[in-house]
Amino acid sequence: MTEVLRPYQVEVIAEFWRAINAEQRRIILVAPTASGKTVIARAIVEQARQKGCGSLFLAHRREIITQTSNKLRGIPHGIIRPGIQPRPLEMVQVASVQTLHRRAIKASTMELPEAGLVVVDECHHVVAQSYKSIIERYPEAILLGLTATPCRGDGRGLGKVFQTMIQCPQVGELVEQGFLVPTRVYAPVDPDLHGVHVHRGDYVERELADRLDRPKLVGDIVTNWFKFGKRRKTVCFATSVRHSIHIRDEFVLTGVRAEHIDGSTPMAERDATLARLASGEIELVTNCMVLTEGWDMPALGCLILARPTKQLGLYRQMVGRGLRPAPDKVDCIVIDHSGATYRLGFAEDFIEWTLDPDLKTENPAHAVRDGDHPGGPKIVECPECGAARVGGMACLSCGYLPAPSPRAVDVIDGDLGLVGTSRKAQPNLDDLRTREKWHGEFAAIATERGYKPGWVAHQYLTRFGEWPPYGVAPVPLEPSVEVRRWVKSRIIAHAKRRNSA
Ligand SMILES: [Zn+2]
Predict the structure, then answer these.
(1) How many whole angstroms from 280 Cα to the centroid of ligand 1?
(2) What is the pTM of this model?
(3) What's the CATH number of domain 183-390, 3.50.50.60, 3.40.630.10, 3.40.50.300, 2.60.40.10?
(4) Rounded CA separation 439/391 (Å)
(5) How far is the CA of 344 from the centre of ligand 1 (A)?
(6) What value does the mean pLDDT take over residues 123-134?
(7) Distance (Å) from CA 397 to ligand 1 centroid
């Protein structure tokens, strides 16, 4: 069974072989949740096999090994993990890192499989010693790392291991193409983390738990779920095992069918709980660092973030759990009690991943919002529906558009008598640049969708409160996720007004 590849999957596979032809040997493939990274890897492994090159596929969680083995159906392969009969003669081997490390390196009870291609799943863990010691045994092999979040815990790049980065379309683009659902974020609580220490790039867990595992805050989680969660299938990420249990208990007290799992929950029990969530027998599962990655349930419609983090990677992994499409699923509700949205931005933001081990991954859209630019937009709560939206822009959940500020009205009216000289008529240079940029991006979207030039001018008018400069043709610019979101929100708002008329 070979899945039909999507156009971007065909493109990244071609890019992979071009990199190989250009003598690259250590390649990282950045592939968001549900973009089909295993499908892409399968195609590459199969093409390598046809060239006579064997592959070793490394993963660190039992779920991923089972998933990968299922995805490789049709390609003969062996599996190296406890409880499975090894088939050492197969050219393709799927291995648990821990098992392979234990059997082939620590104990020498088996030989390392021969491989010209080593695929590392969830390769942001690659700096761990067990990975390193296996990879070191394959100095001649091509190394292909797969991940949605190519950075270490502290946000720095993986350039010490990898040379080249190939990227699938990002979350925002996959949402637009319909391969993922958008998020609808409610961030009613921004916890006070003042004084919580930071160790290795993230908050100290014990201190976080002390701060967040309090009856009032746990109660708020339940209240806000009833308010925003629409009783959808929900997963809650907690700060500690006790925190997770307390949240579960609070839900159960209010009559919600909720269960808790953690790292010590036996596999069979964990599977049974998740099966009950999938079937609808229970509504909600709380957990501590179990369901953060390598796990999927497309029907999941709501996430509660109760575990603050400074790690962009961890945050995006958690939110990524909810983005797969499913029948009748239009979006994923994220109820953020962790402050992560305010600190790290939206899942749909375009991220500038870096390989550079001395640089930190950036979210440029959020950096502008986050106070680096005084007077820049902030993430605020929508007064209509309570969703998190970018200040000054339309709400993506309900279409609410804030009234233009009085200052903009003064400028339109040309009523300079009421405005102080320091802020009369002329917008500052930043504003002009922003306007030019948006104008160009509107123009590109119009071309893409076959809209008339009048549409561009109208978007400009709606966004900036005045018509574009007369006689100036915009220079088309690649539309940013931010501008696309805005345009989309206008279309939704327009449709809503039409429906209610
Ligand atoms: Zn709203």
Answers:
(1) 29
(2) 0.78
(3) 3.40.50.300
(4) 19
(5) 20
(6) 90
(7) 5
